[in-house]
Every structure is written in structure tokens, then in C-alpha cells.
Amino acid sequence: MFEKTERHPLTELILDDVFSSNKLLLTLLVSLVITMIGTIWLTHQTRQLVSDKGDLVFEKQQLEREYRNLILEETTEGNSTRIQARARKLGMGRIENDQEVLILE
């Protein structure tokens, strides 16, 4: 009544079918996965570079602002004629050696 039939492993049949009959489909699937990973990686790199550029632009603006402030400070404090005129107006002058007072604690 029942005949004894051979059993074939199902996974072996499926893998054999995929690799022998559907080579184009498998190639397209692998290409699609590689393209997706490449697109994701490239998008991540681009966003990171844009973020780094923003940080560098902000740092450049801060450095330029500091540079302008230092130039202004140099011009106002480096003007010796203005300082000497103000010192003369206040009655200030250079201290001589005999005018020096040394305080020791």
C-alpha cells in the first residue's frame, strides 16, 4: 500500500534551487544590499562633514571677533602719546631711585 519513499532535506533543495535557477535574482539582491549600505554610509559621512563645517565656521567667527577686540585693545593701550599726556595732566612722572620706598612685611 504505502511505498517507501526517499526523503530529501528541504534546506538542501531550497539552496540548490536558489543558487542554480535564480542567479540573476541573487546577484541583484546582493547588489541592492551593497548599494543600500553604501548610500547609508555616504549620507552619514556627508551629514558629519556638514556638522563639522558648521562647528568650524562658528569657531572662525569667534576667532575673528577676538582678533578685532585685540586689535582695538592694542591701538588704545599702545598709544604712548595718549598715556604720557594723561600722566602729565595728572602730575605723574618717573620715580627716581631716592623716591622709592621699600616696604617689607
Automatic annotation (TrEMBL):
It is found in: Cell inner membrane; Cell membrane. The keyword Amino-acid biosynthesis does not apply. It is a single-pass type II membrane protein. Pfam families: FtsL. InterPro entries: Cell_div_FtsL. It comes from the Bacteria. Belongs to the FtsL family. Part of a complex composed of FtsB, FtsL and FtsQ. Essential cell division protein. May link together the upstream cell division proteins, which are predominantly cytoplasmic, with the downstream cell division proteins, which are predominantly periplasmic. This is Cell division protein FtsL. It comes from Cricetibacter osteomyelitidis. The gene is ftsL.
